[in-house]
Amino acid sequence: MDGYFGSYVLVAALLAIGVAIVAGALLANRLLRPSRPTPEKLTTYECGVDPVGEGWAQSQVRYYVFTYLYVVFAVDAVFLFPWATVFDAPGYGLTTLMEMFVFLGFIALGIVYAWRKRVLTWT
Known about the structure:
It is built from three helices and no strands. It has helices spanning 6-32, 61-87, 93-116. Helices cover 63% and strands 0% of the residues. By secondary structure, it is mainly α.
């Protein structure tokens, strides 16, 4: 397995073995489990309370916006930690600092936009 494609063959073989193990486990589970469906087992169950009303519930867009803002901050943190470790290395001084300020400026601009649109108010 030498050469350029040798590593790829090894990764593909390990991937195939992993998929085969997972598929085998799921197949064994399906063959060995008991299946006795009853009307009580097929009803909807939610936190110990019998279902009442329809299954349709609307969610406000506000919750998704908060989720997206969290993702933005998480991505921001993912970029900040490696930058903080490399910043101290020789040769990265002012240029790296300015690039990070530009990046943080874009993040701040997005937060200011969300604040101006009153997305960040929780009512």
